[in-house]
Description:
Helices cover 79% and strands 0% of the residues. By secondary structure, the chain is an all-alpha fold.
Amino acid sequence: QEAFLAIVADAAPELGGKRKRQVAALLQLLHSAYAWASLREQWDLNGADAAEATRWLIELILEQIKDPMK
């Protein structure tokens, strides 16, 4: 939890409380073996494709929380 909360704090220092925790939890989920297994088993994505997809979404989330008024 600490590592993912730090990532969120670095990307959006003004984000706090409940939303910060939610974003950190989502980032951890995207980085988890469970998510990768699901991408492989249910979507037939290989490791490279799963990495590309999760990296894209993580970058999108981090960019969005920098400016929540977007």
